[in-house]
Structure formats: structure tokens, C-alpha cells
Amino acid sequence: MTVESLIIWIIVGAIAGFLAGLVVKGYGLGLVGNIIVGIVGAFLAGWMLPELGLTFSLGNPILTSIAYATIGAIVLLLLIGLVRRSR
Hints:
Radius of gyration: 13 Å
Number of helices: 3
Helix content: over 70%
Number of strands: 0
Oligomer: single chain
Number of domains: 1
Structural class: mainly alpha
Largest sheet: none
């Protein structure tokens, strides 16, 4: 992985974390926390969705990456929210 691709993943993850925080209200971790969750969610979705056979394309690779990362961040925020509520 090159430095440029890593920077793109971080930017895409940050956007996805912000969008996931808007979608999943009440389970958010604040702006910085949601951005970190978005970055982790980007890596999670990049692995999880193709493994489940749920691949799609929005025509633009960056938009598709943001959509994948947002889905991963939403899943991750919901899981974190469930763990936090069970305590």
C-alpha cells in the first residue's frame, strides 16, 4: 500500500465516519470519535462486503469507496452502541 492510497483511505474513512454519525444518532462518539470509527469502518467494509458477496458500484470509484466505508462505519457504530448500552 502506498502512502497516497493510505491517505485516500483516511480521507474516505473520515467522510464516512461523519456521515455514519449523522445516520446513527444516539450511538455516536462525537466528531473525532466518529471519524476514527469511519476509518476503521472503511477497512472493515473493504473486507466484509466482498466476503459477503455484497459488491456494488456507483460509477465513480471514490463515491463507491465512501459508500462502502459509510456502511462499515454504520455497522461499527451500531455494534459499539450495543456494547455500550449493555454495560
